[in-house]
Amino acid sequence: MPKKGTKSKKKEVDDVPNQQENKLPDYLELQRTRVVCNDDAPIYVHTFICHSSLMAFHLLIMITFITLALHMFPCEIVCLTQGYQHSGTFAAMGVDNSVSVEKFCKNFKIEINRLTEDDMEFDMIGIDASIANAFRRILIAEVPTMAIEKVFMVDNTSVIADEVLSHRLGLIPLDADPRLFDYISENDVPNERNTIVYKLHVSCPKGSQRITVKSSELEWLPEGSQLSMSAPAHSGDKQKTFTSFSQSQKEILEKPLGVKFKDITIARLGPGQAIEFEAHAVKGVGKVHAKWSPVATAWYRMLPEVVILEEIKGGKRAVVAKPRACTLCRECIRPEESEESTEGASEAQESSAPWKQIELRRVRDHFIFTIESTGSLRPEVLFTEAVKILEEKCERVISELS
Amino acid sequence: MEHGSLDDSSSSTFSIMEEDHTLANSVRFVLNQDPRVAFCGYSIPHPAENKVNIRVQTTGDPAKDVLKDALQDLMVMCQHIRGTLDTAVADFRGNKPAEAMDIDLNKK
User: Does the record bear Protease in its keywords (chain B) (predicted)?
Assistant: First the structure.
């Protein structure tokens, strides 16, 4: 909280002459760069953004707040995750808290831990939670993808209802690069630039076993729709179909379009049942419907830090082996209720309680990002697209302001 | 659109349509880093409506310019992030055939 910084700054200025430039006392540095995890539930405090000029006013407000707070809550109030964001927080101490663009560019690092065709895990160091969250939100909801939107049912005698079948089809991930396609709106004619057409025609012969219709049976039609809209006016004319492809999609695209995963069950057919339909896939974003989300999911966590405060007795020296693998379950700092400790235990005994020997922290600006792609784009391409979309948003607002 | 006073251009509220926490929180963070900003925050008047209000109060400069600068800074940061990611991916791919195993970051 910026206010806490203000309070101790007053003491600091009185006691120590202002010779140490850019040096904060340890506990403030800890609060600025780490999030301390306690064993109880996080107590969130809204970030207070203060006037850097009205110091005295805030000192008064802050003292009342702290005294009030101490009466109401037994434990320390920690503002998690957000931290001291205002650039003038430690101004009177002579410490510059600002994160200018130059400083950001100098300190920012990305380290890739795992990169496969379907998922990636990488570390972003030196970035703030608000921007990391912005990327996560864009990855889930605003990076476009292709998914089946319209299904033209010709024949459906299966036990799966039309709408249920169509819903399932929409959720099938398609192996199409959405950057090669345009959006389609209500009045547009479906053409080869904004629609992908698939067809399915399966039937289960009478007398045979039940069959399962898998997604591999969806057939891509690069020439466009084959269903005719109405009977042709003259017998020799070409029939008007639901799409008007001026050229085959095979010439535009390099590799054939299909479904990404071939073993998704679409429906099951009993003997004598058949399904015949044509499906049109269009470009969309996850905000409108989750079928257009390009990631299975994308998430981040802060780098955990486990610090051993006191010597842990027991022969050998205890060292933290893999802090990165910590799941922050807080079992190591959970106080245990035992009979002995409540019956007049001595001071020395209390301080060596195992849950007090470890401190659990998270590094505020180190994010371990994981992206799991559903297959239309590679995960690093997805992240690049997400960053581009944030840039486009900024540009849009700038042009609106001008 | 900007809601401010005609004679004092250093404080105003910007109401942006079709935006949500994604952009607003990032812009608020970048604005906070600007030393010209005395106060900044954002709110979403109603969750069903796609609108966000960003409040900027500066120490004298017109709020519009400060917001524009913050947006430009955010764009520069995004471009830098993209560049860093591309280099990191290229490095990772270059090292992979040599190492054939994950880079052990658990040593931290």
Answer: no
